[in-house]
Amino acid sequence: MPKILLKNVTKKFKKVVALNNLSIEINDGEFFIILGPSGAGKTTFLNVIAGLEKPENGEIYFDGDLINNITTAKRDIALTAENYALYPHFTVFNNIATPLRSSANKNRYNTKQIREKVDRITKMLNINDLLGRMPSELSGGQKQRVALGRALVKEPKVLLLDEPLAHVDAKIRNQLRTEFHFLKEKFQTTTIYTSHDYKEAISLGDRIMFLNKGEIQQIGIPEIIYNFPKNTTVALNVGWPEINLFDCSVNFKNSQLYCPKGDFIYNISGNVLKYLKIYGKSEYIVGARPQHISFSDKPSDIYNLKAICGTSEVYDNQTVFYVKIKNLDLTILVNDPDLSLMLEQELWLGFDDQSLIFFDKETNENVKLKK
Amino acid sequence: MNKRKKLGKNVFANLSTNVILILSFSFLLFPVYWIFTMAIKTNPDILTYPPKFFFQPTIKGFQYILGLTKVTGATGVSAGVESYFLIGIKNSIVVVVSTILISLAAGLPAAYALARSKLKSKENIAFTILSFRFAPPLLVIVPLYLLFSKIGLYNSYFSLIWVYQLISLPMILWIVRGYMEDIPIEIEQAGMVDGHSRIWIFFRIVLPLAKGGIAAGTLLAFIYCWNNFLFGMILASVNVQPVTVQAMRYLTPDAIMFREVAAICIGAALPLLILSTFLQGYLISGLSMGAIRR
User: Fold this and answer.
1) Residue of B193, B199, B203, B207 to mutate, interface with A, max A Cβ within 10 Å
2) Of the residues B80, B107, B128, which one is the last residue of a structural domain?
3) Which of A241, B174, B180, B294 is the most interior residue, by most CB within 10 Å?
4) Which domains, from first to last, does chain A contain?
5) Got the DSSP string for A24-73?
6) Chain A: closest CA distance from residue B287 (Å)
7) pLDDT score of B294 more than 50
8) What is the ipTM of this complex?
9) Ramachandran angles phi, psi of A259, nearest 5°
């Protein structure tokens, strides 16, 4: 039985549609990630599940029970807000103990039990020595831990985390991300987690839902989202550096692909041609991940597209090159930090045509996923 | 060279700022100083021209308004003089404190409602309440007098407390509402998520976080109510009138007792001075800083 079920949920703010007709099942114990750019409706989605926003349309079920009219206090959920929303006038201890003191709680705890529970959670989150401090005396990472503690201490059925790693610095982010793996294994609570960072999503999620402008673009396990993006929006937002997209037309007779912007012709292999033939159209947008383009300094059968090198950026063990084929700008990622190319140097590129992703030019949808 | 020039400029800027400040403060505080000296002068000293800056001080004025002196009449019988000042202070405290308490009881929940409700007409409601302060009191005072006389409310604490709401309620409501709107909604939502009721959130989260606004609103409302003169004069008589009106008792048909009027002015201002000093600390509301990422 699905733990959370949304049926045709629509939420509008005046005329702006924040969630458009969402239907989705989230399984018991699943770590479910909502990925999307800012303004996609991620926070609204969490607020609707939490009962902080009432949807105009649609039904929400927990374990098969309709909960549309149940107040937030009685929903047995926990939510951490993007800005932490700690009670500024309470100490860390009181912040974390607040959910335990609620009258809506199933079992009333006495002072000793509350202390024990808070202790257990804070030890786990390594904030045990901060209990007497006020929120204003905490760093960003510590605040996030307190907010998490306040959510976890309640042992909720559903845990809603709104961009928990968005505003902590890089070092703490990696540390907390590792801890989320641990919490995920330890608590096995149904968790809905929003993020705009695809790496976070791919690393943590059991399943990912890509949301854009209030509409579900794609739901799937991380590998599917990365390798088979449903449309160009998903493709552009998942993967670093950003995927290269360019218009192409396919000539089925001589199994060639022509790109007008780069003014080049590329031979494609039989199996790719086959599924394009089944799809039946000849105009596509081609997606090539920067990882999947390789190059050589001499032309050959494989490397037969002449390009001019532009600027490059070196990362710890990778280099990103920005190159040009006539008017077509391409990004290439190479796993070699020492490789350096001259500006304006000539290169010969080759695509791995098995990893090219074809999108319908009119609908922007992935050809392979279209039935 | 350049640095020294800059330093000299700074000193000059500092000096001139201070001089301007001192001048403006002396200008503003001179009436207060003058009232104070009047309160400890003898009547002849008050009335001489040119005014006297050096004189023999006396505390008779204060003794008189506190009812500590006895007056010997023409027949040789001495009698204690009733202290209008103390009656006035008592009346002021009763009326103003009750007014403020009622305004807080009604105004704080109203401010919260008007800060958070999604009602379309909430701006209109808030504006209507503010508009109570637009009309000059003289406009309403005659009808109010007639009305209150008819229904037997003339000369009662209740009538003053009621009418003073016109002054204090809009002030408390508007100031506190601003502070409540500034409380991040996420903190209140966290309260709901943690399983608490609206009432709990109001008392345990909203009120403590709006403390600065409540202190500011209360203080301002208190000052305006305390200093009100017109309502007390028209709607009440001697046993109910606040201290501001009681000062008039010393404007007798025989003489204008400048010293006593000055003394009562000083006496009436003292509670406000004490209250402001006390509440000043609460006015600084850095409390919600830091709990929210900014």
Assistant:
1) B193
2) B80
3) B180
4) 4-235 (3.40.50.300), 244-360 (2.40.50.100)
5) EEE-TT-EEEEE--TTSSHHHHHHHHHTSS--SEEEEEETTEE-TTS-GG
6) 7
7) no
8) 0.85
9) -110, 110
